[in-house]
Amino acid sequence: MKNKKGLSAIIATLMLILLTIVLVGIIWGVISNMVKNNIESTSCIDSLGKINLNDRYTCYNASSNETQFSINIEDISVDKVLVGISVAGQKRSLEITNENKVVSNLKPYGGSYGDVVILPGKNEGMTYVYNISGAGFSAQTPDSIEVAPVINGNKCDSSDSVVEVSGC
Fold first, then answer.
1. Which of 8, 118, 165, 168 has a CB 3.0–4.6 Å from the CB of 142, allowing a cystine?
2. What are the E-state strand segments in the chain?
3. What residue numbers bound the domain in which 63 lies?
4. How many domains does the chain have?
């Protein structure tokens, strides 16, 4: 009889240790997911003010019905930038990535439609020209242009916008 009491105390102790290990594993899983999500959203916070439109090179050319906009990227890694152009209540979005890609109705400044466009690198800027009439807008002068970065696969909020697009 004495051996059975000693054996059940060892089993109870092992069960408590096992239960503690399982609970620590569950808590670790929950906490690590929360930390991972916060780190991903922090990268969007870090992008504020680092991806912007250069007002000096953002304008509308009425004679060619084209909008010119310039994107500047400071010291931050960006997967792609979504550019939203609004004209008389209509909005179109463009996606400019780190890969050479042809984007409909968009060309690099000084280039031709059908040329590849690419996002500027760190601490660089690039100017693009967008064909308003070719994009199917009924009006001509853009109301606003805004940029929103995509970082580590997460779409961030708009980082900059130009509300009044002046003439070139």
1. 165
2. 51-53, 59-61, 66-73, 80-87, 90-97, 106-108, 124-131, 144-151, 154-155, 160-162, 166-167
3. 51-167
4. 2
